[in-house]
Amino acid sequence: MPHSVSAAKRARQNQKRRLYNKAVTSNIRTAIKKLKAMVAAGNVDQAKAAYATTSKRLDQAAAKGVLHRKTASRYKSRLALLINRTAAKK
């Protein structure tokens, strides 16, 4: 239990931010899993469309501080590489 008003406020803010960060992270992970499933199924065109939305979500998360900007960039790079390699095989 916080002993001061400022400590109580900080605890409320931390909880609110934790829930927001958890929701955004979950949303990103789900989008990445769906994109990988599309690539595995061979739906490259759908995967390219999904990549655009996933990339946007990653950039927004990086802008808000949920993810580090280099982490978001790494995810985007690896997903693009996966899609491009799959497209080249066909």
List the keywords:
single chain; 90 residues; Methane Monooxygenase Hydroxylase, Chain G, domain 1; 3 helices; 0% strand
The fraction of residues assigned to DSSP E strands is under 5%
Mean pLDDT: 96
CATH fold description: Methane Monooxygenase Hydroxylase, Chain G, domain 1
How many domains? The number is 1
Question: What's the arrangement of secondary structure elements?
Answer:
Layout: H1 5-41, H2 44-64, H3 69-89
Helix pairs in contact: 1-2, 1-3, 2-3
Give your account of this protein's structure.
The protein is mostly helical and 90 residues long. It is 88% helix and 0% strand. It has 3 helices and no strands. It has helices at 5-41, 44-64, 69-89. Helix 1 (5-41) runs antiparallel to helix 2 and helix 2 runs antiparallel to helix 3 (69-89). The chain starts with a helix and ends with a helix.
Explain briefly what this protein structure is.
This protein is mainly alpha-helical and 90 residues long. It is 88% helix and 0% strand.
